[in-house]
Design a protein that fits this description.
Cytidine Deaminase, domain 2, binds zinc ion, 239 residues, elongated, 6-stranded mixed beta sheet, mainly beta, 3 helices
Length: 239
């Protein structure tokens, strides 16, 4: 701090404008500001280019999470494929990890598919609302999500409205769910910053879709836009 050409002060509870200084920087909850006081004006302005005399700092990520086992990836794809084939909808699963056990688990959160009734069948829009779900056991932490883009590419940004909902963690999107080789996009998101990842570095190698767990489907609610009552997926909506 002593080597800075202009002092940097924190805008904390103890903050008071430094006496006798004509130029200094203020680090506040809402960013960095430059303060200047001259005989003719006093001004406080945002200082987006930083503090003179400090070094640059770069964003970075070092992930110490093991790869998600292929069997879980394959079961997730089985779930996403079924949701697409039944309702042309997206699905989402939460990814849990127990550091003490070195084990992953998937859980289906309560999720609502909004759509319309066509010829007596529910057809989802590419939109999904979901709520958190409890971890499968005490040692497990929620470390991310996996969700699907149906028959579209995993990286299809026009249909991805989930970015702003992401908690800190690993977020995987699965596309082309009916193909033998679905597409995967992975990123790690923290505080609104996104680190794109090579899916092969975080996911086991997909070979074939596996049967999803039946209770996952109990978490799906179908909500028609035409005013019909929402229905639990298990009560109907199949082709
Ligand atoms: Zn999406």
């Amino acid at each position: 701090m002593g080597s800075l050409p202009f002092p940097l002060v924190l805008r904390d509870d103890a903050f008071a404008p430094p006496e006798g200084l004509h130029t200094y920087y203020v680090l506040a909850a809402n960013g960095l500001f430059l303060e200047r006081h001259t005989p003719l004006f006093s001004v406080s302005v945002p200082a987006p280019s930083g503090v003179p005399g400090l070094h640059d700092h770069a964003p970075g990520l070092r992930l110490r999470l093991p790869r998600v086992p292929a069997v879980l990836v394959e079961r997730a794809v089985g779930f996403f494929r079924a949701v697409w084939e039944r309702w042309e909808g997206e699905g989402i699963l939460l990814l849990f990890y127990a550091p003490s056990l070195g084990r992953f688990a998937l859980g289906a959160p309560p999720q609502v598919l909004t759509g319309r009734i066509e010829h007596g069948c529910f057809r989802a829009e590419m939109h999904l609302d979901y709520l958190p779900c409890p971890a499968p056991a005490a040692d497990y932490l929620c470390v991310g999500t996996m969700h699907s883009h149906g028959a579209w590419a995993a990286g299809h940004s026009a249909i991805d409205q989930h970015d702003e909902e992401y908690e800190a963690g690993l977020h995987v999107t699965v596309g082309h769910v009916t193909r033998p080789r679905p597409s995967f996009v992975a990123s790690f998101v923290v505080g609104g910053s996104r680190f794109p990842l090579d899916p092969a570095t975080v996911l086991g190698r997909f070979e074939r879709a596996r049967r999803p767990l039946d209770p996952w489907f109990d978490q799906i609610v179908l909500r028609p836009r035409d005013g019909a009552a929402p229905a639990a997926a298990r009560d109907g909506g199949r082709r």
